[in-house]
Amino acid sequence: MPLKTSPFKKEVIKQDFRNVGWIGIVYLIGLLFTLPLQLVMDMNNEHSREMYYENGLFDPVFLYGIQMILLFVLPVLMAIFLFRYVHVRGSADFIHSLPIKRSSLFNYHIISGALLLILPILITGAILFVSYFIWDVGNYYTLSDLGYWASVFAVFSLFLFITSIFVGSLTGLSAVQGVLTYVLLLFPAGMYGLISYNLELFVKGFSVDKAMAQAIEKYLPLLDFLMYQPRTPIGMEVSPPVDSTSIVVYLGLTILLYAASLLIYQKRNIENGNQAIAVLTLRPAFKYGATFCFMLLGGMYFSESQLSYSWLFIGYAIGAIFGFILSDMLLQKTWRVFHIRKLKGLGSYAAVVVILILALPIIARGYESAVPAKDEIKNVYMGSSYSDYQTKRELSAPLIHGSDNVEAVRRVHDELIDAAKPMEEGKRTIFLAYELNNGDKVFREYQVNQQRRIPYMEKVYSSEEYKRMTYDVFQLAPSKVDQLTLHPPMSEEGPVRITDNEEVTRALQLIKKDILSQSYRKPNRFATGLDIGIGYENYNVQLSTSFTNFNQWLKDEGLYDQAYLQAKDVHKIEVLRVSSEARKGESPFDILLRENGLETSDKEKIADVISAANDVGDGYLIGFYQSEDEISTIANLEAGEAPDWITNHFK
User: Fold this and answer.
1) Does the pLDDT at position 521 exceed 70?
2) What are the CA-CA distances from residue 389 to residues 32, 432, 443, 457, 601 (Å)?
């Protein structure tokens, strides 16, 4: 009677367990240490048993940081060691000579790796499941928390495992596989960010802040794990590291990457096992992709450090040449890549880039000049950044919607299109967000010189709508505020704290009244910062000496001298007449140390300067000394706002 051969090759599974089983054991030990063991240890602490941990199994008590190291490292190592033979010519020849199909061999390895990654999660989950019914652990986690944790670890372990296998099918070197796995995970958001930064330099109004936020939100959800800050607040709702939608998306990506990996593995040539890029058709894409990335990096570095379009293009050239040569060395596995014939490929690449740069202004002309019509606008935000706009929406702050104010913002927008200069020192960022009646949103971001006056901007800044939108104090309920903390500049006594509920409520009422009564003024260099503390969050308001109602209350409470920088706190000041053009590229500290200016210890004169000093200003540079010889801080003073005793001295 003929023997039947089982299609299941259990010996392959056994061999995989012998080779990489240690990774699964490390995974299991790590999870047992960070979860069940930490649970038992913490339950023995009487104080901890009384606390409520709303972060579930991702709470710091369960060593969240170590959990992330296990999750991000071990699945990648599993893929590298499991498919190590593919990158060694002799091993690949031997394994692929066995009487087993490539697809079957591949799937056996996938099954082995998946089991070794999932089993530690299941064992740890089972222990926590039993613990839930044996002990009172309801203040640590619920069964839904346990299910969420197991789902996240299972899906993302498989995703990272399959991603590394996909990268390993493209490359022929294990070290390159490990590096490129993490590069691939960061690539979509990184590439989007690099392109966005460089676009901002050529397209007026393009918002790199908004683009980067979108890149992180849409193209790099894995960063949610790294940016997640688990806390243990009592009674505060805390969101999980990733939502259920992301879990489903990554599960789908895992399936797609598995299919792609299997296809490439079946078609892959064994001879290319020791090559950096084993799939020959992808080598040109790798070379010119690396060249493009290094070109953008070079341009970003030189433009940011030199603020010059000339240096931007020099950075492009240096980055492109470096990326082209480095990628060629990696592909050829030798430094001997300097041949004249290589110039043809580099020259063709340069020609394409030049055409793109020349075409950008033409393509973007309609984008740059577009300003939404007044009757299309429902609300508009004008501020400093996209993140601040998001904060306002989270706080349900009312945006600018009055007809006159909306028109003023549109006039400001028209001026910004002409005034925008990304490559300029002393620039400030102005961010605009239009919410249209049809539900669409229009975002624009401009960098303009600090000294340039924009028509209609002061009208917007002085409007009540702008103030209620900009100052978070209008969105905060006084009853929820834990404390007010005043941070006076150059203070040696430390911050001033107000914790009494009635005093907090009264102070906030007076601050709101003062804000609404103020006309537009430039922020003072020595304005006192006020932190409004609500739980773990802090909201800031810059106080002014012109806040008459609040400051009178501080005086009545005996807190005024502690809350603001006083002339008596400054030993002396030194005044230099230096225009912003003259000091370009040189540190203000160096200028003050080199030059001899007007010095005074007169407290009345010092008080005059304190009240008029700004962070920016074209006219005078002021050094403040709290001791005889050491400059404590530096401020600027507009020529038109300087006291008479300064202007008379420098006539």
Assistant:
1) no
2) 43, 9, 10, 18, 44
Q: What is the pTM of this model?
A: 0.75
Please calculate the CA angle 616-619-621 and round it to the nearest 5 degrees: 65
Query: Which one has a higher pLDDT value, 51 or 240?
Result: 240
Q: Is pLDDT above 70 for 557?
A: yes
Asked if residue 131 lies in contact with residue 36, where contact means CB atoms within 8 angstroms, the answer is yes
pLDDT at 3 over 60: no
Of the pLDDT bands very low, low, confident and very high (cuts 50, 70, 90), residue 341 is confident
Burial of 524 (0-12, 13-18, 19+ CB in 10 A): buried
Taking Cα atoms as reference points, which of 163, 155, 159, 153 lies closest to residue 28? 153
Q: Pull the structure tokens for residue 113.
A: 């790796």
Q: How far is CA 260 from CA 113, 184, 209, 253, in A?
A: 17, 15, 34, 10
Instruction: Write the DSSP string, 537-577.
Output: EEEEEE--TT-HHHHHHHHHTT-HHHHS--GGG-SEEEEEE
Q: What are phi and psi of 293, to 5 degrees?
A: -60, -45
| pLDDT tens by residue, 71-80 | 999 999 999 8
d(CA 99, CA 105): 10
- Strand partners of residue 599: 574
Nearest to 71 by CA among 140, 124, 145: 124
Distance, C-alpha 397 to centroid of its chain: 23
Rounded Cα distance between 560 and 531, Å, is 16
Q: How far apart are CA 513 and CA 523, in angstroms?
A: 18
Q: Give the whole-angstrom CA distance, residue 178 versus residue 311.
A: 35
DSSP 380-397: EEEES-HHHHHHHHHTT-
Confidence band for 582, pLDDT divided at 50, 70 and 90: low
Identity of residue 146:
L
**CA-to-CA distance for 56 and 59, rounded, in angstroms?**
6
Sheet holding 441-449, edge to edge: 377-383, 427-436, 441-449
Could you tell me which residues come within 8 angstroms of residue 353 by beta carbon, excluding any fewer than 6 positions away?
Answer: 295, 316, 320
Q: How far apart are CA 455 and CA 417, in angstroms?
A: 13
Strand 427-436 to strand 441-449: parallel, antiparallel, or no bridges (unpaired)?
A: antiparallel
- Beta strands 619-625 and 483-487 are unpaired
* Backbone angles phi and psi of 232, in degrees to 5: -125, 55
Placement of tokens 């802090």 in the chain: 538
- What does each C-alpha distance from 166 to 80, 161, 270 come to in angstroms? 11, 9, 16
Give Cβ neighbours of residue 525 (< 8 Å, ≥ 6 apart): 489, 613, 614, 615, 635, 636
pLDDT, one tens digit per residue, over 75-107 is: 999 998 888 877 666 666 566 666 678 778 888
Query: How far apart are the C-alpha atoms of 105 and 107, rounded to whole Å?
Result: 5
Q: Fill in the amino acid letter for 49.
A: R
Three-state secondary structure string covering 276-317: CCCCHHHHHHHHHHHHHHHHHHHHHHHHHHHCCHHHHHHHHH
Number of residues in the chain: 651
Sorted by where each begins, the domain ranges of the chain are 10-276, 284-369, 374-470, 472-563, 569-649
User: Which residues, including other chains, have CB under 8 Å from residue 461's CB and lie 6 or more apart?
Assistant: 520
pLDDT for residue 237: 47
